[in-house]
Specification:
Elements lengths: L3 H13 L1 H10 L5 H15 L7 H15 L2 H14 L3 H15 L1 H16 L3
């Protein structure tokens, strides 16, 4: 049976990129090692690795949820990750329009500002 941590690490690297994961792993300490293992196995190994949605679709759902909840740093990270998931700037725009309707204009406004900044810094 495949190891959820190994699957999670493969998925995490595919979505966020090796450089991001390498930085996170280098910054890991004994204090947060269990938490890092938890998100690698749970979020990346169990949910993101499921076959029901594509990485592009999961990326858009994730961005919308993070925007709705006001998790700005995570919105930025997942907008950057769309270069690996296939979600386009137009896809992100459409997801954030949904945020405006279902989670409120202020949440969407903040997320649009973050996404715009991140998309403008792409090479």
């Amino acid at each position: 049976m495949p190891d959820p941590f190994d699957i999670g690490m493969q998925t995490r690297r595919a979505v966020l990129g090796d450089a991001h994961v390498d930085r996170a792993e280098a910054a890991k300490t004994p204090f947060d090692a269990d938490f890092q293992a938890f998100i690698t196995e749970g979020a990346w190994g169990s949910v993101w690795a499921r076959p029901g949605l594509t990485k592009r679709e999961r990326s858009l759902v994730t961005i919308a949820l993070l925007a709705a909840l006001g998790h700005d740093e995570e919105v930025a990270m997942h907008v950057r990750a769309t270069v690996n998931t296939g979600a386009t700037p137009d896809d992100i725009k459409e997801a954030l329009l949904h945020v405006a309707v279902y989670a409120g204009v202020p949440a969407a406004n903040r997320a649009f500002r973050i996404a715009k900044r991140e998309l403008e810094t792409r090479p």
